[in-house]
Amino acid sequence: MNSKIGFIGAGNMTYAIVSGLVNSYPDDKQNIYVSSRTVEKAEIFCKEFDVSLAVNNRDLVKNCEIIVLAVKPVKYEEVLNEIKDIVTSKHVIVSLAAGIEIKYIEQFFDEPTKIVRTMPNTPVLVGAGMTAVTKNDHLSQEDLEAVLNLFESIGRVDVIDESLMDSIPAISGSSPAYVYIFIEALADGGVLQGLSREKAYKYAAQAVLGAAKMVLEKEKHPGELKDMVCSPAGATIEAVYSLEKSNFRGAVIRAMNACTEKVKQMGKMKD
Ligand SMILES: NC(=O)C1=CN([C@@H]2O[C@H](COP(=O)(O)OP(=O)(O)OC[C@H]3O[C@@H](n4cnc5c(N)ncnc54)[C@H](OP(=O)(O)O)[C@@H]3O)[C@@H](O)[C@H]2O)C=CC1
Ligand SMILES: O=C(O)[C@@H]1CCC=N1
């Protein structure tokens, strides 16, 4: 880690990213700073990970080059007003917020400021995150590489056009939540049929992990991979038929549309 990185907000996403970074950079823990509204929470957090405590958000900005805004979208105005006069052209501001556009953050600063908008997900905690990244024109290639390196150390990264950013929560930022529901449902079905709860979670989660690896590592269409499982007149096609009758795909796509709709509303709520 070549820069000091500071997290404003010690909530779920900071927990996930810092856990991942501490695993990837065990010798650089002291270069990770955290501040939060409730200082006691930040203290507990810093003790757990052996990272540096910033006593407040301004102290964090003074100590770090990369500043991650890990507060809810509605808190952006408050936090940006608090730090704007001490942010310099050397800092890189990294936003995690769903729905917040780069131009909204830019308007707080009188001078050109380096801003990166990202959408990670909680699996960064285990080094298996998916992070979409977009940036403004004030970053050098070196600045961008520094941010990409951080997220690449805790998962996969993709640089995209900002026009696509509002669509990313639905497909990867929020989707771990739907996958956990799917895993719970698989496990409940297993328990119903007599498996222990412990075994049911292990079998369900490993099946989801394995299926995802097949999609990522084999150059095959997911439909072809599904067909490989469905023996003619076999058991799997009965399950697939039942899911299709329940509009499984439609339910997922409808949920994603609801997610994106909310992301767009959250982007407007901060105005
Ligand atoms: N959770 C997720 O899976 C993902 C979240 N995100 C984005 O990450 C951001 C954070 O989300 P998440 O971690 O889930 O939210 P949380 O509610 O878990 O955490 C937010 C944190 O911000 C702190 N906070 C609030 N106001 C301030 C302030 N003025 N100064 C410093 N800290 C403050 C809160 O402290 P306190 O508890 O004391 O109020 C809390 O620790 C959001 O913008 C979200 O859109 C992006 C991708 C995935
Ligand atoms: O629920 C949320 O608003 C955030 C955005 C992506 C995941 N969690």
- Tally of discrete structural domains: 2
* Annotated CATH homologous superfamily of the largest domain: NAD(P)-binding Rossmann-like Domain
Shape assignment? elongated
Q: What level of helicity do the residues show?
A: 40-55%
The CATH class of the largest domain turns out to be: Alpha Beta
What integer value in Å does the Rg equal? Answer: 21 Å
Assign the structural class, choosing from mainly alpha, mainly beta, alpha/beta, alpha+beta, or little secondary structure. Answer: alpha/beta
- Number of helix segments? 12
CATH architectural arrangement of the largest domain: 3-Layer(aba) Sandwich
- Characterize the largest beta sheet: strand count, sense, and whether it forms a barrel: 8 strands, mixed
- CATH topology of the largest domain: the name is Rossmann fold
Low-confidence stretches: none
Strand elements, count: 8
Give the bound compounds.
NADPH dihydro-nicotinamide-adenine-dinucleotide phosphate, (2S)-3,4-dihydro-2H-pyrrole-2-carboxylic acid
Please state the oligomeric state of the protein chains shown: single chain
Q: Which strands sit side by side, in order, in the main sheet?
A: 3-2-1-4-5-6-7-8
Q: H/E order of the elements?
A: EHEHEHEHEHEEHEHHHHHH
Distance N terminus to C terminus?
A: 35 Å
